[in-house]
Every structure is written in C-alpha cells, then in structure tokens.
Amino acid sequence: MGREWGKLAVGLIVILVAVEQLVGGVESLSHTFGIPEFLAGVTIIAAATSLPDKLVSVRSARAGKRATSLGNVFGSNTFDLLVAIPVGVLIVGSVPVDFAVAIPMFGVLTLATVLLFTILRTDLSLTGVESYGLLAAYLLFVAWVIAETVGVTQLIQGG
How many CB atoms lie within 10 A of CB 60? Predict the structure, then answer.
C-alpha cells in the first residue's frame, strides 16, 4: 500500500513540474509571437493540461471501464470549476471577473453540454460520426476564439 501511495505522490510531482514548465513555455511563446494571453489560456494551456485526463479516460474506455472514463471527465471539470478556480483566487488574493468575457464563455460551455447530452440521448453512447462532430464543435470554438482575438468578430468585448 505504501508503494502505491509513493507512486501517486511521484506522479503528482511530475505532473506539477510538467504543468509549470508547460505554462512557462506557452507564456514565452505567446510573448515571442504576440499571441494574446486569453487565446493561449483558452486553447493551448487548456488543451495541454487536459491531456492527462484524456489519456486516463481513453485508457479506461479501452479497458471496458466506461463509467470510470465518463466519471473522470465530469469529475475533472467539476474539480476545475469548484476547486481549481477558488484555490487560485485564494493564492492570488482576488481576481476580477470580466463579465463581457465570462458570459459568452459560459454560453459556449452550456451549448457544449447541451450538444453532448443531445448526442448521448441515444443509449448513452457515442458513434464515430458523433465523436467527429464533437471534435468539429471544439475546432469551431477554437476558430471563434481566434476570430475574437484578431478582431474578426466582436462578441467578447473585454477579450
């Protein structure tokens, strides 16, 4: 049992160091190439820090542990919203929330949730076509964020 706790501790330390390096690297690249922080945060950093969750979910699904796979995704997102954000604020002291940015993002989050559950209404399963549709929805989201960042669209006023 002690050995397993040790593996967990080492794994968490590796993740902590890797994420710190990732964030530093992305910040450096964003300054070098003039990529706005918002764009880097909502796309590159968000995707990269979610990769461990993706790998756990895929591995669980391949092992036939569908409930574990789905639980990992929902648990991770719930943890991010209800623990990661408040802990970050506790460390920093306070964080101003720009509702001109937050409201459209919450709208996208709500639409993504409705889209997922609309697709899952059929026996709570995803087909390959539906999976590609969800990937396309994410790429559309990234394209929209890029369009906002370069000024093509103006839905997010403070971004």
Answer: 18
